[in-house]
Design a protein that fits this description.
- By secondary structure, the protein is an alpha/beta fold.
- Helix content is about 45%, strand content about 15%.
- It is built from 9 helices and 10 strands.
- Strand 8 and strand 9 form a beta hairpin.
- It is globular, with a radius of gyration of 18 Å.
Amino acid sequence: MSVPMNWAYCTNGFRDHPLDQTLEVLADLGYTGAAVTLDHGHLMPGASAAEVGRIAALARRLGLSLAVETGGRYALDPRRKHYPTLLHDDAEARVRFLCEAMRIAADLGAPVVHLWSGIRPPEVPEAEAWDRLVRQCERLLGEADEVGVTLGFEPEPGMLVADLAGYERLRGLLGGHARFGLTLDIGHCRCLEPYDVPECVERALPHLVHVQIEDMRRGVHEHLEFGEGEIDFPPALAALDGFGGLVAVELARHSHAAPDVARRSIEFLRRAHDLAGAGRSRR
């Protein structure tokens, strides 16, 4: 029997709404989760315990499960996107940000904190970049053990860890730590992986803790509304059957029409999931 999906939406797609309004809109549309991006205008490290507690209580009242995402473009530097990363000489600000994200996640009751490697700085040799990434992830895993959350590491096109093979390499270098999980972006599977999307999902499942989802085209890293790209979603969702974490729509550049985009997205995903179930029943 098919397990209902825990449809969620990334709050970076609601930049023009306060976080509490975002959660209320998502619950009204039928979402059962939210991937809270720590960023300006929403929760940020340094938010008071009272504010974090208020959001946690609101999510419980609305019946929303939460994850914490850390991909805010200018969260740490107003002039340089995603700076610093775990690969830079001055990575300490990123480490502090991620440690605070884990503490916020624990207070929100969010079991997963998402992160990524960053783009390798041109002055840093590749071997050194990998060494830096492993050292910093080891530090972060110590914090994860302390606060009781799981890291959901996302391979990201153009970054040092760009694909599933890169994630698997990094996980191995970290000794297969139980709290080093995988965030899989379904669009990225179509964009650059050498396998079709259902194969990517099946390969990811043993370590999968968080899913981002949107449409995409081969070779182009552009997050598209469903139906605007090339992904055949029913087989992809069939491969995800049984996954109990959040499946979070990530359309960060669609805030200008966020409520309508979120409505269209959940309607599309429900139809695709129904078709996935119908396909399984015919087999």
